[in-house]
């Protein structure tokens, strides 16, 4: 079995080691004997995105987002078809914002998003920066998610868009409503860098499980030794234990 990952805009959207998420997904597949192919896809590439089991994209600055947004609109149809075929889409910060309707930057530019998720983003003058601890429910089990955020954008979810997590400590989507990220079907967005998947291995496996479901019925992922990953996770959680939201 082979897992195919499409890494969107690695040359333009890559802050705080977001690319590490791709390494985590690749390694956690290979350690289980699942071959994993990673294709880098950037501006001008016209591949069929439905070819991929998982599409990943990272965060970036407003300037890079402007460049990417134009191209992403050209890939819009292919992206929607991929999602309809079950492809998992996992996006961080700048690319998460571009999945919504628009991102109005602090510089006054309105960047059009692809509208895959019902949300919009408005830039604020004070950046929302720091470590974050959140709670998320994955397949009926509650987990803490930890990561690092740094964004000017405040994202507001439409009623039909569930949050990925609720904020325990940190700012989340907009520093106000206690929601972090978005998760709708196989489409995920989060403000958490870290890279997030290195510190939250159960979330990496959740995404792998969904992506592999395109290849095989009920994929089973054997357990891995996550001692180091969970030590990094717990280190952040302990710093914020006893802290109530914000
Ligand atoms: N870290 C990021 O990806 C930042 C995204 C966007 N430029 C913002 O500041 O909100």
TrEMBL record:
Binding site for substrate: 127
MF-aspect GO terms: carbon-nitrogen ligase activity on lipid II; glutaminase activity; transferase activity
CDD domains referenced in this protein's UniProt entry, alphabetically: GATase1_CobQ
Residue ranges of domain CobB/CobQ-like glutamine amidotransferase in the record: 4-200
Pfam families: GATase_3 (PF07685)
Signal peptide: none
Catalytic reaction list: L-glutamine + H2O = L-glutamate + NH4(+); beta-D-GlcNAc-(1->4)-Mur2Ac(oyl-L-Ala-gamma-D-Glu-L-Lys-D-Ala-D-Ala)-di-trans,octa-cis-undecaprenyl diphosphate + L-glutamine + ATP + H2O = beta-D-GlcNAc-(1->4)-Mur2Ac(oyl-L-Ala-D-isoglutaminyl-L-Lys-D-Ala-D-Ala)-di-trans,octa-cis-undecaprenyl diphosphate + L-glutamate + ADP + phosphate + H(+)
Role played: The lipid II isoglutaminyl synthase complex catalyzes the formation of alpha-D-isoglutamine in the cell wall lipid II stem peptide. The GatD subunit catalyzes the hydrolysis of glutamine to glutamate and ammonia. The resulting ammonia molecule is channeled to the active site of MurT.
Family: Belongs to the CobB/CobQ family. GatD subfamily.
HAMAP family hit by this protein: Lipid_II_synth_GatD
Name recorded for this polypeptide: Lipid II isoglutaminyl synthase (glutamine-hydrolyzing) subunit GatD
Provenance organism: Effusibacillus dendaii
Lineage: Bacteria, Bacillati, Bacillota, Bacilli, Bacillales
Gene coding for it: gatD
